[in-house]
């Protein structure tokens, strides 16, 4: 019987405050526009825009910002029954963006004592996870307790129930104590995940070593559960590897780049949509690259997530970056 959800994501839902006056440093920016943000929330929203049935497990502040995030996610069709309100006064995470030029963008995160990292194991429901085909785990959820244990509980339940586990490495250094610790927790989850998505730099963090080739990285991970591994390299595109030994190159597409953040989350939503619909790995990489090209041409990450029709339209005239 078909499950209620194609995908449930676990991790942070937060706020992005994106510079409205761009092509200048943050010090000179007076206006910021508010959007829902947080990598797993962005992936959930992007997946819902693509017509996927999506749920979310997380924690938001019990205030106007938490209300806004919950209402926005409901508005785009993400189920928020397991997006709980914090009862200890923790606040929402804020991400300010700086767009000095299309090539020079950065984010500034305010993530001290943020509500998402206080998600408790008791707030992860086996009944909810039984209703999904896929669980998307964001690496940042492993950064601190009790969120770390909540995520590991979700992983254990998913494995027991045969839910496909996707690990989005999503490394945000601000919330971690040191990279050795990150590597330990990343390896625990990566070894049990069915699909892993991350940038080359994030795999270096996972391995706690800089210098391995993609082939060395995937050979090590394929000794464990993973069946499909994606390694992204920004404007140089992406690579996908299967346990059966196939390798694919995802070409990036030319875009009227306004800013580059949001590329990874839109890529994940597009890629996972195509994988869930058995469209093949080449198509999945095309969907990921196209979704990313669309999102980086706009101010927001979450609000710019494309529909399937937008991706198909884009691909009709898309030009590959060589
Ligand atoms: N400048 C660009 N032009 C075209 N496509 C891009 C560009 N930057 C990224 N992409 C596309 O987005 C995909 C993901 O980008 P990237 O490797 O930067 O992920 P990320 O670091 O997770 O992104 P983010 O900046 O959102 O954290 C790339 O594989 C590529 O297809
Ligand atoms: O992941 C975050 O918490 C910040 C995002 O919402 C932001 O849009 C971004 O940087 C995406 O890459």
Provide structural commentary.
This protein has 322 residues and is an alpha/beta fold. It has one domain: Ribokinase (UDP-N-acetylmuramoyl-L-alanine:D-glutamate ligase, 3-Layer(aba) Sandwich), CATH 3.40.1190. Helix content is 34%, strand content 25%. It is built from 10 helices and 13 strands. A 9-stranded mixed beta sheet has the order 5-4-1-8-9-10-11-12-13, with helices on both faces. Strand 4, helix 2 and strand 5 form a beta-alpha-beta unit. Helix 1 crosses helix 8 and helix 9 packs across helix 10. The longest helix has 15 residues. It is globular. The ligand O=C(O)C[C@@H](O)[C@H](O)C(=O)CO binds next to strand 2, helix 1 and helix 8. The site of adenosine-5'-triphosphate (ATP) has 22 residues, from helix 8 and helix 9.
Looking at this protein, list some descriptive labels.
nine-stranded mixed β-sheet; binds adenosine-5'-triphosphate; binds the ligand O=C(O)C[C@@H](O)[C@H](O)C(=O)CO; 13 strands; alpha/beta; UDP-N-acetylmuramoyl-L-alanine:D-glutamate ligase; single chain; 10 helices; 322 residues
Q: Secondary-structure blueprint of this entry?
A:
Blueprint: E1 5-10, E2 14-19, E3 32-37, H1 39-49, E4 54-60, H2 64-75, E5 78-85, E6 94-101, E7 104-110, H3 126-129, E8 132-138, H4 147-161, E9 164-168, H5 179-190, E10 195-199, H6 200-207, H7 214-221, E11 228-232, E12 238-242, E13 247-250, H8 263-276, H9 281-295, H10 308-317
Parallel strand pairs: 1-4, 1-8, 2-6, 4-5, 8-9, 9-10, 10-11
Antiparallel strand pairs: 2-3, 6-7, 11-12, 12-13
Bound molecules: adenosine-5'-triphosphate (ATP) and the ligand O=C(O)C[C@@H](O)[C@H](O)C(=O)CO.
Adenosine-5'-triphosphate binds next to helix 8 and helix 9.
